[in-house]
Amino acid sequence: MMRGNLWQRLNRTMSDPEMRIKVLALMGGKAIGLVLVLTAMRIYLAPALFAQAPAPPAPSPEVNAINTAWTLIAAFLVFGMQVGFVMLEAGFARSRESINILVEGIVDTCLCGVLFWAWGFAFMFEDGNGLIGTHGFFLQGLAETYGTTGVPLLAFWVFQFAFADTCSTITSGAMVGRCGFVGDILYSIGVTGFIYPIIGHWAWGPDGWLAVMGVPFRDFAGSTVVHTIGGAISLMGAIALGPRLGRVFRRDGGGPPLPHNIILGAVGGLILWFGWYGFNPGSTLSALDAQGIGRVSFNTTMAACSAGLAALFYAYGRIGKWDLGLTVNGFLAGLVAITCPCYWVSPTGAFFIGAVAGVVVIWATDALEYLRIDDPIGAVPVHMVCGIWGTLSLGLFATGAYGLPTPTGVDATVSVKGLLYGGGIGQLMSQVIGSGAVTISTLVVAAVLMYSVKATGTLRVSRAGELEGLDVHEHGMLAYPEYVIHGDWASPHPVSTSK
User: Fold this and answer.
1) Topology of domain 69-463, per CATH?
2) Which stretches of 318-474 are assigned E, i.e. beta strand?
3) d(Cα 46, Cα 38) in Å, to the nearest integer?
4) Phi-psi region of 352 (alpha: psi -120 to 50; beta: other; left: phi over 0)
5) Which of 68, 208, 291, 322 could form a disulfide with 202 if both were Cys (CB 3.0 to 4.6 A apart)?
6) Tell me: the pLDDT tens digits for 275-304?
7) What confidence tier does 116 reach under pLDDT thresholds 50, 70, 90?
8) Cβ–Cβ < 8 Å for 101, 89
């Protein structure tokens, strides 16, 4: 009898959607913790228990202090982009989901750090095969410096962690306003633990299949590896979620909701621009390549400027107004586009790459609106579409004059030359193959991930929760509690005015 009553109570409990989400979150958290503990035990204890005689460690290249300082400063700048991302997303979103955006950004960062230490870095940057790295989990058994860079392994890890965190943050942009917090945690584990490092290995791993092609695929700082991957995952998340409640698209007589604080969003965009000076110049990993750092910094600046102006004037020609939001997304599109070719193109090439990106980002925004895909921040046009354009632009605008950065300067024996500079179609075809393979593969695995999370009932909040607002429903607070902005939510600690 007791067994029957227990079964009935369990049935009633699991039929409650809210309780089901809590149980799944609890079980998922315990499972993740158990996997991490068992993996750590296997890596740390197994060698001590079963090793016969430890092999002598391979000699490491001498640490280059100047390059190490340069790489860490760049890493700190890239990490500072997280401030820009949360400000941009919160400013462009509605006030009732601002806190949710900040909490997601912070938690995604913390998850990324643990997962990238446990296995993400090994999957991405250690050798194994053309598809995935197969050793170096928890950074065990690795040399003290990374490759021939002269940069200590841990410093290089910090730099690459900031990149992985950027990709994870991009992913949330098109999912703002209706994604459940538990669902965000689940898909973030898939993104930073598996999709980003495994697919990224193809281009940036020491034996990645794209990196070792006859004409190697080139992506200097991540138009494809960081931005296209993040934007493609974001697109599949938006499709799996569906539009926000009440969202009416232009072809149906509506338009996107207005940003709740466009000033905050624009400041966030400018902070991202500042952080990009770590993203692109820092990817030299060498402070001794002075000409390369200067060229990359200039090209980054020029592409952002031309893209911002192109978006501003193109938008004015269409609507007769000087649009702030499109201008911000315009210069961000230029920054994304120049991230791949920034080392190998001239200032003139950077200007045209940015100018095209400033128009393409608006066309892509129009396309999403026509297809009724709700992307509140513009993550897909900025990161996926302009990431693809920037990757392909290398095959057009690379001059062939700049070689490759090295720990002690530049290797001038390597030539990266595009079609417009007499290099033929070889590099362009490599860029097409690499961008196409990464984009299509990411879309496929992201669809599997998002619809798997959706099947758990955690990807999208309930209708009531979305109407209440994610800040209140998920986090129990408002971003602006002193103003009556949303609903009749009352403070749990009302202040009495009686004497």
Assistant:
1) Ammonium transporter fold (1.10.3430)
2) 404-406, 409-411
3) 11
4) alpha
5) 208
6) 999 999 999 999 999 999 999 999 999 999
7) very high
8) yes
Question: CA-CA distance, 272 to 173, in Å (whole number)?
Answer: 14
122, two tokens: 């090994």
User: Residue 423 is which amino acid?
Assistant: G
> Would the pLDDT of 159 be above 70?
yes
In sequence order, which ranges of 16-64 are alpha helices (DSSP H)? 17-50
What sign does the CA torsion over 359, 364, 370, 372 have?
negative
Residue 118 vs residues 135, 330, 453: alpha-carbon distances, Å: 11, 37, 22
pLDDT digits (tens, 9 = 90+) for 15-65: 665 655 554 555 555 445 444 444 444 444 444 333 444 444 455 668 999
pLDDT digits (tens, 9 = 90+) for 121-155: 999 999 999 999 999 999 999 999 999 999 999 99
Q: Letter for the amino acid at 404?
A: L
- Six-digit token pair at 172? 């949330």
Cβ neighbour number for residue 480 with a 10 Å cutoff: 14
Query: The tokens of 120 are what?
Result: 């993400």
Give yes or no for a contact between 233 and 191, defined as CB atoms under 8 angstroms apart.
Answer: yes
Locate the domains of the chain by residue range: 69-463
CA 204 from chain centre, in angstroms, equals 16
Strands 404-406 and 409-411: antiparallel
What one-character DSSP code corresponds to residue 195? Answer: I
CA-based nearest residue to 435, from 358, 369, 339, 332? 339
- Residue type present at position 201: H
Tokens of 369: 């609106």
